[in-house]
Each structure stands twice: as C-alpha cells, then as structure tokens.
Design a protein that fits this description.
mainly alpha
Length: 109
C-alpha cells in the first residue's frame, strides 16, 4: 500500500512540474520572437539592436502594429515566419513614427 501512495505522489509531482514547465515555455517563446523582431528591425533601421529589453518591447509593439496593418491590407501573416515579417514591418513603422513625431530624433539611429 505504501508504494502505491509514493507512486501517486510522484505522478502528482510530475504533473505539477510539467504544468509549470508548460507555462514557462508558453511565455518564453513569444518573448523570444519579440526579441528577434526588435533585433531585426533595429538592424534595418539602425544597424544594430536596441538591447534585450528594447528589442522585446519594440518587437511587441511592432507585432501589434504589423498585425493591424496586415489585417487592414488584407494580407495574411500566418505561421511563425509571417508573424515575424509582420512584426518587423510594424516595428519599422513604429521607429519611423517615433522619429517623425519625437523631439528625440536620435531614436533608432
């Protein structure tokens, strides 16, 4: 009877651990994609990235703007590559808008 209890405890622990790891992976992948989007747009507009946090934030904003723009144009951006392309386009637009309407003309240069 004692071995059955230990097996049940081990299964519950394994289930809990897999749930925690799933949450971590589900959060890590989008952040990684946002960082790639920010880095790529930084390469296009600046010749270098904006740092880890800057790339992640720029990628997040670019992803939102790019998906809205692609949606308005009726262009599908399916799959990982399509989302990265839409995000880079949105991030480039975001950098352009910030440069245009900001007093800080050095942003993105």
């Amino acid at each position: 009877m004692g071995i059955i209890i230990w097996i049940l405890i081990a299964l519950v622990a394994l289930f809990a651990l897999s749930a925690v790891l799933g949450i971590v992976v589900d959060l890590f992948i989008p952040v990684l994609v946002w960082a790639v989007i920010g880095w790529l747009s930084g390469q296009l507009m600046r010749g270098r990235g904006f740092g880890v946090l800057g790339n992640i934030l720029l990628g997040l904003g670019g992803g939102v703007i790019g998906s809205v723009l692609f949606g308005l144009l009726g262009v599908g951006a399916g799959g990982l590559i399509g989302r990265i392309v839409a995000g880079v386009v949105g991030a480039v637009v975001l950098i352009f808008l910030v440069r245009t309407f900001s007093d800080n003309k050095e942003f993105g240069r």
